[in-house]
Amino acid sequence: MMITARLGRIVLLIVLPLTLLVSFLLLAHHNGSISRFSSSYSSSSQTSSHSKPKPNLNGTRENAAFVVLVRNSELNGLRETLQNAEDRFNRKYNYPWVFLNDEPFTDQFKEWTAGLVSGETFYGILDQQSWGYPDWVDQEKARLAREDMANRNIIYGGSESYRHMCRFQSGFFFRHPLLAKYDYYWRVEPNVKFYCDVDYDPFQVMRERDLKYGWTLSIKEYAETIPTLWSTVKSFMAEHPEHIVPKGSPESLMDWITDDGGETYNLCHFWSNFEIGSIKWLNSKAYIDYFEALDKSGGFFYERWGDAPVHSIAAALMLKKSEVHWFYDIGYFHNPYSQCPREPAWLAAEKCSCDPQESFDTHWYSCTPQFLKVTGKKPTDFLITER
Ligand SMILES: Nc1nc2c(ncn2[C@@H]2O[C@H](COP(=O)(O)OP(=O)(O)OP(=O)(O)O)[C@@H](O)[C@H]2O)c(=O)[nH]1
Ligand SMILES: [Mg+2]
């Protein structure tokens, strides 16, 4: 009797808890809550995510995400930027972050980024179609073009990966399965800085004002990188007049990119390292027709077309003035230029750390004065929050 009772107690005190613990561990592992990242791999794409509890947003968050194309080697520069973007804006909103790479992200990259941000994180790899040569491109001709541009010291002229990057940013990031489900994206790069608090939700502004493209800095392109871009665009316009806002229309932005009624390109573009844009617009037939016309010409490889002029020309030709917004009040830095708002009350209220005198918007090489002229606006017209 005594022995049976003792055995019973042993079972209750040791074996039962052990069984419960083992069952819990098995269940937790099955649900993925022990492994920090749940991953699924296909032959061409690595997608994995790190979920966080959904914040209580009172239904105010938009269907939007940050997107960062980045290499594993840029982790530290990216972490500073993530910390800064979270501190200045996203800790209040918890928007998700989508990281994309042409190679698999390392576990360290995933852990050190997921740990820094307030929103969910997603990690994707690119496939051959979006980061590779299309079959109509003559790779030997492309190699000779790189050699020639390197000899002429054209910036990134000798780089093959830079060309894949520009083509990807021009025509593919918004089609990636991790991004395609969102309405809006905010593009971020490693090492950029946000100088002021952002006390409103730019994604909400995009939706409420029916905006398609938002930018902060504008500049002129190196002509040597795009010798035939404008003639290719002109052929596209002739073939697809239905996609173009009519030249004479008061809503046309065309005069921002041409000084002679469309004969030549004046090299003006929005600096695309910062963009807040509409994914639906980039996925529209108009934009895809445009990208495919450019891509078919091979200019991303035979020359060195940047995604900044490619996006900007599309916006200037296919969007209405009222659909393009200057985020004048988002203090921003990408080496070596910055955008800094000027209103003293605003600078203080938003805790800006930039110097308005250094702001690139009034620089002779900026295209922002021409944007203001064409749209008939002044910088303060673009302030979202009155101070
Ligand atoms: N995964 C991956 N990302 C890249 C590669 N090349 C560039 N990127 C990313 O693409 C974005 C643009 O590249 P950058 O090198 O910053 O190009 P840039 O802004 O024209 O030039 P910088 O003045 O040097 O910043 C950045 O977010 C980079 O991290 C690459 O080969 N692989
Ligand atoms: Mg950059």
Automatic annotation (TrEMBL):
Q: Which UniProt keywords apply?
A: Transferase
Q: Where is this region: Disordered?
A: 40-59
Q: GO cellular component annotations, sorted alphabetically?
A: Golgi apparatus; membrane
**GO terms for biological process?**
cell wall mannoprotein biosynthetic process; protein N-linked glycosylation; protein O-linked glycosylation
- One of its Pfam families is Glyco_transf_15
Active site residues per record? E275
Compositional bias annotation for Low complexity = 40-50
A Gene Ontology molecular-function term? alpha-1,2-mannosyltransferase activity
Return the similarity comment: Belongs to the glycosyltransferase 15 family.
Name recorded for this polypeptide: Glycosyltransferase family 15 protein
| Organism of provenance | Phycomyces blakesleeanus (strain ATCC 8743b / DSM 1359 / FGSC 10004 / NBRC 33097 / NRRL 1555)
What is the organism lineage in this UniProt record?
Eukaryota, Fungi, Fungi incertae sedis, Mucoromycota, Mucoromycotina
